[in-house]
Structures are given as C-alpha cells and as structure tokens.
Amino acid sequence: MDTEYFQSSKFTDKSDTYTFGVTLVEILTGKTPFSFAKDDGENLVASFISLTRENQLVQILDPQVVREAEMEHVGAIAELATRCLRLNGKKRPSMKEVSTELEGLRNTQRCLEKFQEPQSFKDETTFMHSTSETMKDHKEESIL
To answer: InterPro entries given for it (predicted)?
Structure first.
C-alpha cells in the first residue's frame, strides 16, 4: 500500500503509480510482498530497491525472467519500478509516463526482433539462393 496513504489517509493518482510499481516487482521477482520475508525484517519492495541500486538485481529476480528476458529490458523495467515506488508521491512518474516508457521498451523489442532473423530462416534463404544459382548454371550448360 502506498506509504503516503498512511500519512494522509487519501489515495491519489500517484497511489496508483505506487501500486503499479509493486505489481512490476511481483512480476520480476515471482514473489508477493506477503510471501517475502527476510530475517532482518526487510520487505520485498525495500529489498528490490536496495538490490537494484547495488546492481545486484539478479539476486532477487525470478529465475524464469533471468532465463528468458533481455537483461537490458529487465534493468529498465526495474528502474521504472523503483521510480514508481518513491516514498514521495510527487517524485513518482504519472501512469501516462509509465505507459509511454513501457510502450517505448516494447517498440524497441519489436525493432530488435524484426532485424534478427532466426538461424533456420537464414539457412533456408542460403539454400534457396544456392539452389537457384545451381539451376541457372545447369540451364546455361545445357544451352551451350
């Protein structure tokens, strides 16, 4: 729950941003705030922020995220999550800014995927090209 709510007893647009930050942390770690407890009493959000700042994020990430995601994008999302979780609501991004940033990351990923052909496709293209060249050679030889 938004830490500012405990002081003001009011939810704001920035409370939604905080909650979304918690959701991003849950997705990246595979843990819920209630399932995570450290001996020193540090909670999931505090541990996540601390490890992100110390460049030790991989220690808390869900193993599936580590295996399957681009770490550059994971780092960008983790940084966004930490900004959403700022104690001072005025320093948090708006949900519009969050949405724009996530959309930018998604577009970057699509661009990368567009320019990275799968190896099997490259092999097929090479095979088709070499087969086509061989057929031309045979055709020219038979004409001569």
So the answer is: Kinase-like_dom_sf, Prot_kinase_dom, Ser-Thr/Tyr_kinase_cat_dom, WAK-like
